[in-house]
Design brief:
The chain is an alpha+beta fold and about 130 residues long. It is built from 3 helices and 6 strands. The chain has a 6-stranded mixed beta sheet, with helices on one face. A hairpin with a 2-residue loop joins strand 2 and strand 3. Helix 2 packs parallel to helix 3. The radius of gyration is 14 Å and the shape is globular. The protein starts with a strand and ends with a strand.
């Protein structure tokens, strides 16, 4: 099977030696992704906006891989503040309410920057 690496130009991709997503056959694995915190639309204290930003950006990555959010079968959500569950769930549900992938949400002590409240990994199986 051929391998397709999807890069987004993030400086972390070269620094850590990874890519945003890998497609082998019809399976697409998406790396843990955090929001682009701009301080206006996406703030460091807004888990809802961060979750929205992540999923919107990954929709584009999946499209580049020949897939879509409709093909997502699993998400893994990591948060530094589990009290933000309702905000994270509301954003996740807005995209996946009808798709219903399996998921888990885990509170962790830190992400790579204190600006990040949420990081999400995705698995998709393209049709």
């Amino acid at each position: 099977m051929s391998r397709q690496n999807i890069l987004t130009g993030s400086p972390w991709e070269d620094k850590m030696g990874y890519c945003r997503a890998v497609r082998i056959g019809n399976i697409i694995e998406v790396s843990g992704t955090v929001a682009i915190v701009d301080g206006e639309n996406v703030k460091a204290d807004d888990a809802f906006a961060q979750t929205n930003n992540i999923i919107e950006r990954i929709a584009k990555v999946l499209e580049e891989a020949g897939s879509s959010l409709n093909d997502v079968v699993r998400t893994r959500i990591f948060t530094t503040d589990i009290t933000q569950f309702d905000n994270i769930a509301r954003a996740h549900g807005a995209f996946f309410g009808a798709i219903k992938p399996t998921t888990g949400i885990y509170e962790i002590s830190k992400l790579v920057s204190p600006d990040y409240l949420v990081e999400i990994e995705f698995t998709a199986i393209a049709q």
